[in-house]
Amino acid sequence: MKKWRPFPVLVGFLFSFLLIATFLFPTGTAAFDRDSKWDSVYSKGSRLYLIHCAACHGKNGQGGVGLPLNLQSFLSVAPEGYIRRSIFYGRLPRQMIPYGTFLKKEDIEAIATYVRSWQLRDYVGIDQKRVAGSVSRGKEFFDGMCSGCHGRDGLGGPQVGGGHVTNAMAGYAGPALNNQGFLKSATDGYIKATMMQGRVGTPMGAYLKGKQGMVELTEEEINDIVAYIRTWEKRDSGPVDPWRDK
Ligand code: HEC
Ligand code: HEC
Question: How far apart, in whole angstroms, are the C-alpha atoms of residue 98 and residue 102?
Answer without folding.
Answer: 8
